[in-house]
Amino acid sequence: MIDISVVQICRGVDLVDRGRGVRFEIEIDGHVTPAFVIRYDGAVFGYVNQCVHMSMELDWQEGEFFEKTGQYLICATHGVIFEPNTGRCVTDLCSGSWLRKLNIVERGTGADSVIFFVQTDTGTSIDVPVSCDHSLS
Ligand code: FES
Prior knowledge:
Blueprint: E1 4-11, E2 22-28, E3 31-40, E4 43-48, E5 73-74, E6 81-82, E7 101-102, E8 104-107, E9 114-120
Antiparallel strand pairs: 1-9, 2-3, 3-4, 4-7, 5-6, 8-9
This protein binds FE2/S2 (inorganic) cluster.
């Protein structure tokens, strides 16, 4: 039997499309780990808040994960960018790497919707994380 836990993160209206994200914490292998959710093209996505380049959180100001056009997520430290809906890195630096995607669901509609993180004992990720081995010269 799979053990499932569901954690409420925020209200749906707290996530503006391509706007500020909401930070929260999850436990991975016994360690409290930062994570975040964002809304992009109407859907909600969540990731571990850790860059694939170095072990840094992405947001340059709390909750600011999108670059200025609102098309991509960006790491504030060295500017690596990611697709908001997949977590795939699309810059040369760290190309082929992925943010660690979380299982996020939105239940309800309009002002009554709520965002949840669904965690199973088989893992928190629905995509296999691929870390980058590039370093800056
Ligand atoms: S730590 Fe994120 S781009 Fe370098």
